[in-house]
Records
---
Amino acid sequence: MSVVEHEISAHALRARCEGVVPLSARLEPWQRDLCRRPSLLSDLLDAHGSPVNVIDPSPMARNVAELVTAAARFDIDLRIYFARKANKALALVDEARRLGLGIDLASEQELAQVLERGVPGSALVMTAAVKPRHLLARCIGSGTTVVIDNTDELRLVDVLADEMGTSVSVALRLAPHLGGDRIPTRFGFAVSEAIAAAAGPGRRVRIDGVHFHLDGYDPSDRVAALGETFALIDALRERGHHPGFVDIGGGIPMSYLDSASQWRHFWAEHHKALRGEREPLTFEGHGLGLIAHRGEIVGRPNVYPYHQAQTRGPWLAEILAARGAWGRPTASVADGLRERNLQLRCEPGRALLDGCGLTAGRVAYRKQRGDGTWLIGVEMNRTQCRSTSDDFLVDPLLVHPDAVSVAGEPTTPTGSVEGYLVGAYCIERELLAWRRMRFPLGVDVGDIVVFPNTAGYLMHILESSSHQIPLARNLIMGQGHTPYLDPIDARS
């Protein structure tokens, strides 16, 4: 299919649902193909309940290649660790292992599962925010590298390694000082604290590297943090330690939307709506982190930046090319890594899962609230397509199966309406999306709402089974394009 044909095909899929101010999702070929098979989607919902998560691991290879290619341009040894917390599907662990990636872990259960899949401890790093004794013991026993956040963790690792009679690989987590009005991170040590902590443990604790993880996606923040990291590496080596890697964590950007102009236009129109200059774009005027005060818009958007001009490879290249981050003003970050013979590591989740998943749920009802507002009830809840931000600012697709009925009786589409997607929890503001959607061809009971590109965090990071509603099942696209249950669900 040509590029033009792809665009026509994507437009046809979007024809049934879009935001009142559209934010058109970038669609993978496999996502378009699946949405063109409404009977298959309907069968999957019949078999596994609504909603379902459908995952295709294959785009991960392309996303990995972008980062590897960027690092190779600077002759940098890059080691990528897939952030497992971004998605629990074991098929993604298998794909990461097939691609030669390490795995970044955030709990003992995640560790146990990847060890069962045959991933060796030497390919694992534990970055859990809280690390109980039994978790640390399992890390030490399996040879998993532990990222140390505080002196209590370091003391416990030291004691356990001595009790178990074995060595343990650790990385000290740095809390970079970025200055300005930044809120300090709750994770890690300042440089001086890390140097002091490194003097404490015995010979069984090997300080093999330095790690940091920053909020946001600004490459200049990473450059500043790497300058501090180099200073810490140098100080550790002067004191007899042998750190061999720098780990910049995750936060590698991706883009859900192709259109920068759509993204800018949405925010311009949202500002107008908050000032009362046009009808609201969101349910009851939800600000998405912004409010109007005396005609001015204040606050900051509490959402992921769903369009970003610089992602993955180009973003990493900018960091590696940046100069002046450390002692020599004309030396680049890449120079600093090479001269210290340091491996660069990173732990992306969302950026590796770009294009790897979608979430589909069935329309249960259509109704009008007392004020005439249309509400489209979907058999799913808001935690099943939501991260820590206020909203998922990507237009869903609406797929219409060939035969739609309720208890065997045909239903009637609404006709062209605008309204809101609401979910299953008994909460007044149970919105699947805060934005008002337009349904030009109407909505029918049994239609399928598809949220594109949800594999990175959106499926699992907040999912809840409140009201004892089962969690969504996770299906993997097979070679023959017939989805099968992921082992994470098949084992239960």
---
Amino acid sequence: MTEYESYVLREWELFMADPRRASASLEAVKGLEVRRVLDVGCGAGQELLPFVAEGRATGVGVDIAAEVGRTGRELFSRQAPQARVSFAQATAEALPFLPESFDVVVCRVALPYMDNARALSEMARVLRPGGAFLLKIHHARFYLRKLGGGLKGLRPLSMLHALRVLTAGAIYHMTRRQPRTRLPSTETFQSAWLLRRELSRRGLFIERQLEDGDRATPSFVIIKEGEAP
């Protein structure tokens, strides 16, 4: 088993161990007709489970990893055999789907590692009008906490990484341009303020913030403007 496969299996197990996560996803889209769901940065695809269990909707997971779907297909066949799920290797910045293909798009703590402008444009493009975008981000608090932990544990590489991301995020917030070079960092943090600015350009708006329990990684329900077809 590769390191990636071990990681996605662990994330699947964490999801299965906390039923509140599935309930929160379903509650977030309550009242919305959900037939097709896309998970961007999907890992094993566990975020699709609440929607596709018992064949209620069709799920698609995309990830940049070459091993995408290898572990997910096995887990779904064993634990949710009725689910209709497929996987594809793709980047969020170039999604291989037609416009308005999905009722729900999910992206959990993957946006910090993407070209935010391009990824948000693509996710908005494939989401239908009136559809829901479930997004979980890394706030600056996430990296401040990492910086503090690195300082306390005398881990200079962890501290350096946190400082580089905090610098990149600050530049992004001030200049409206995300650094895309190793110095300071291609990784960045987000905030509700930044998201509102970026989303409004793409016909999206934050409907509400979910009760996530962690201010360092807040979650949002985002809606695409327009009437459902």
---
Amino acid sequence: MLVGVVIGIGIFGFPPLVAQHSSTPEIYMGLWLLGGIVMFIGALCYAELGSAYPDTGGEYAFLSRAWGVNVGLLFAWARGTVIQTGAIAAVAFIYGDYAQVLVPLGKYGPALHGGLAIIALTALNMAGTHESKRVQLVLTCATVLALVVVSVAGAALPEAAAAIPGQPLSAPVGGLAGGLGMGMVFVLLTYGGWNEAAYLSGELRNPERDMSRVLLIGALVLTAVYLVVNFAYLHVFGLAGLRASQAVGADMMALVAGEWAVALLSLLICCTALSTINGSIFTGARIYYSLGRDIPALRGLGAWSERGATPARALLAQGVITLVLVLFGALSNGGIQAMVAYTAPVFWLFMFLTACSVIGLRLRDPQRRRPFKVPLYPITPLLFALSCLALFVASVRYAGIGALLGLLVLAGGIPLLWLQKHTQKA
């Protein structure tokens, strides 16, 4: 589930942007390795939190325990209206773009394809957890296998085989430090989604043992896959050619598959996007379920379907909100860019607070049994927190007015705090 959520469209879109902020091939590969290390450090922090406090609410439960119920409720609101639903909508647009190549549906074809995928996969998850997991396993295996095949085929091609006019290997814009910073932003966007495993902690057979295994093994697999893929890109295109590529996946497939490149690439991206959408729908609905469990006025969302072992009403609510965002994106220019700008700043803000929760809970709850403890404490969580804070600042600068919209929607959750307090008094 974790690998399927993370490996997505980013590996086909962000490598040229990372290359533009790298002055040498060694720095380019080093950024991808560093991104994997940051993800691994984050996984260590989440492994401690998830094994000590297993809960289907994931970060909602961690933040509520560390910083109080008000922060937890604001996160739940943000995840349900901005972070998770916006991310699902963004991937749905990407899926729609490639599905439109295979089955054109007119002017709004991408949005229609994306909306249909959300409806179908929401229905699948409502049918049952086991059915969703089986489909996720098939999609994930197909995605990883396809990436490995493309990478091996690319590595077998002559070095710098792509006939793409290269950009000169000058120093990145903003100097070395600025280039490395922006390069890491795009690298970590590609790695994004690994933290979704936190929402599985309440459903693992033995969370005290398995949570750390899921996160750490998943992080290692993801880092290895991305390093192999990027080595193949660099081998085939060279750094200059990679900088100039507008669609690195398409260019790679054109070299590997010739005239079948467009269809094969579209099928690959559709498979990858569906894997991400399904995994995100599965984990995302758990936050609505936790809200319904904790706020009496929203208890309808806390209903659990014993038949399918799934939060059916929570899945339905999430699907409706996501479809509204897809409609919004379809009526605006650049649906994908709008969703990224809308979600990123809010996401990194709460990721920073979650990183700080490791330290906060050690201080507030020292007697709690912790089956897994993050090594080199407190250095490790502090490094992760600083990384998240830097990414929050960078994403606000990148998103502009989109960041303001996302933060305004976050502020719109303040009435939830009153509702929770009011229902407690009642």
---
Amino acid sequence: MLIETDILVAGAGPAGLAAACVFGAAGHRVTLVDPAAPITGEDDPGADLRTTALLQPARDLLGQAGVWDRLAPHAAELWTMRIIDAAQTPPVSRDFQARDISDAPFGWNFPNWLLRREMLATLNDLSTVTPRFGTGVTGLLCRDTEARVTLSDGTRIAAQLVVACDGKASPLRALAGIGHRTVRYGQTALVFAVAHRVPHDNVSTEIHKTGGPFTLVPLPDRAGQHRSAIVWMDSHAEQARRAALEETAFTAEMNARAVDVLGPLTLISGRASWPITSVVAERLADRRLCLAAEAAHGMPPIGAQGLNTSLKDIAALRDLCRPGEIGSAAMTRAYARRRTPDILLRMTGIDLLNRMSIAQNSLAQRARGLGVAAFHDIPPVRRGLMRLGLGTV
């Protein structure tokens, strides 16, 4: 049997779910496929314990798709981005304030499992979207008039456009013969949640020393506890050692690295780990196919650029999906032209920031501290960098 759809989205992570909601809310017939159903509970096996800060443009996009009203009650607002270089004596600390450029927060922080839950709930209310969880893409044949996709259960789908949101190891990218470049930093991120005595006051704090940043991102208070999510990046060897520590020893190392910015930290979740890599596709589009999200670009979790860059891909695709042009050669070329410069700019910037954070050389660390101060203390530079990070320029 051949099933017809306007857009087939492969991948049901946050980016793929968002894409299905955005395209479905715009009135397009959407089929969403993934070998596994989204995990939507914090305590479910395999739950994604990471958090994501959705920046202002992401809020606008998800608001238009009907997702934001579901997410908003669960948000932790991010009004200040604090950068501390703890390798300096005394430490260099600077605050970047959202009110310097806007009357809204920089962003709103959410656990990734919760993003999946609320996006899936929105998707289930859209009659235009058909989810097919438990199936993956095994075959792709792209013609001038349509794409023919074969799923792992034998189903065949004819789509005007195929959007690959299926991750850094994208099967669709491989089926299309599109190459990619991978950068391995020798780092692992440990991800977990903590409670603390001092309120975070909606400040996201990024502490640099060696090995990578240690970032505390606000979470909503719960049961009278002040809470934050932590992403701790360091070498594979160090993180493997820490992951194996019993809780008391791990908590001691965690508190030493946090330089007491929120008082004593108490671990309140499990610890998950993720290898840190960058991946960029050789091109973003092929006949009837567009790569988006981590199938097109994956980057270290610095500056909240990952999912927000992915949602800019989705916004560009939505704007280009006009009647009669969905999946056309002109449309896919326009998508690649529109997104490639921004993606490369953000990936280059995040790569540089990560390499600076890894640095152990004292001269490099000194230059990093001076750079943080200079970027902050020159008002036009500070405001320009904040607007660039938000994606509003």
